[in-house]
Amino acid sequence: MTLQQTLRRSVSCSGIGLHSGKKVRLRLKPAPVNHGIRFKRLDLDGLEVSATAERVAGMNYATGLAQDAASVGTVEHLLAALVGLGIDNVSIELNQAEVPIMDGSAASFVYLVHEAGIQSQTTPRRFLKVTRPISLSRGDKRIAVYPSDHFKVTYSISFDHPLLRHQSRTQRVTEDSFIEDIAPARTFGFLNEVEQLRQKGLALGGSLDNAIVLGETGVLNNVLRFEDEFVRHKILDVIGDLALIGHPIIGHVVAHRGGHALHASFAQKILDDTYAWKLVESVLDDVEEGQSAATTDSDAPVLAR
Ligand SMILES: [Zn+2]
Q1: Is 49 helix (H, G, I), strand (E, B) or coil?
Q2: How far apart are CA 4 and CA 119, in angstroms?
Q3: How far apart are CA 7 and CA 28, in angstroms?
Q4: pTM of the model
Q5: How far is the C-alpha of 247 from the C-alpha of 36, rounded, in Å?
């Protein structure tokens, strides 16, 4: 059994919204058991938006959520950091409609959670253990999840760009591997798309400080943090988008050329396909049947501390 976790104390930071370009202040606060991850718009009298698949709205090159009259944009990197570090319950206060982009990765949010400290709570966490394959495809984009004893992600990307043809990576996601191998990977974009995005009122806060920008002959930022930083960032994105399921996954996610819209639709499809998973308190402990499973696998559950 793994207990739910929240933060030990409140922490805050400020930054700018990648798409809005507006300055925003963010505060993470401890929350009670079974609260989940919820955003709170302080500029809208504290209206709340739950980080759940049913609240998905507005997928403009980022993941957006809306509930009642409130919306929150670009939630994915913060959500990835929270689930990557095993935070189940947190209230996220914002004074704007977009989570700050920081350096384009989840590293700042990992730092923030560590600064707050992690507090175990009194109620068991429930994992979503995949028991049958679930898949979704749109054109040449596809994503699936298969039964596995761990949370693992295989991602592959291919672009028609001389510097970024094909990258693929399989990552077993634990708290340590998330911090070291995934959280620092930055978002990326193509120089020839920047003008087009700005005409649509997007990427107004984008700069070389918060995104890897690929020009025709090279990476404008000069230095990559990892040789395969691009595909690592896609793993970060899918971890954040699948956080909208509301339970950590025990399964192997395999995606090819996905994006936020596909990831978010897949989160909803997983929730809809109830025959293909069960909620468990650990891989050894089946909530539905209340029996210990006859397995001696010792290196799970995933994301457990
Ligand atoms: Zn991203």
Answers
A1: strand
A2: 9
A3: 8
A4: 0.92
A5: 9
Residue-by-residue pLDDT tens, the chain, 305 positions: 899 999 999 999 999 999 889 999 999 999 999 999 999 999 999 999 999 999 999 777 899 999 999 999 999 999 999 999 999 999 999 999 999 999 999 999 999 999 999 999 999 999 999 999 999 999 999 999 999 999 999 999 998 888 788 999 999 999 999 999 999 999 998 988 888 888 888 888 988 899 999 988 888 887 899 999 999 999 999 999 999 999 999 999 999 999 999 999 999 999 999 999 999 997 665 545 444 443 434 333 444 33
> Would residue 260 show up in a list of annotated catalytic residues for this protein?
yes
Å from CA of 91 to ligand 1 middle:
21
**What is the C-alpha to C-alpha distance for residues 203 and 43, in angstroms, rounded to an integer?**
22
Task: Go through the chain and tell me how many residues it has.
Answer: 305
Q: Which residues surround ligand 1, an ion (CB under 5 A)?
A: 187, 237
Please name which of 220, 221, 226, 248 lies closest in space to residue 152, comparing C-alpha atoms.
Answer: 248
Q: Locate the DSSP E strands across the chain.
A: 3-7, 11-16, 23-30, 37-41, 47-50, 65-67, 70-72, 90-94, 118-124, 127-130, 134-138, 141-146, 151-158, 166-172, 188-190, 212-214, 249-256, 277-282, 285-286
Expressed in angstroms and rounded, the spacing between residue 130 Cα and the centre of ligand 1 is 25
Beta-ladder partners of 60: none
Tell how far the Cα of 284 is from the centroid of ligand 1, in angstroms. Answer: 33
For residue 35 the two structure tokens come to 């609260």
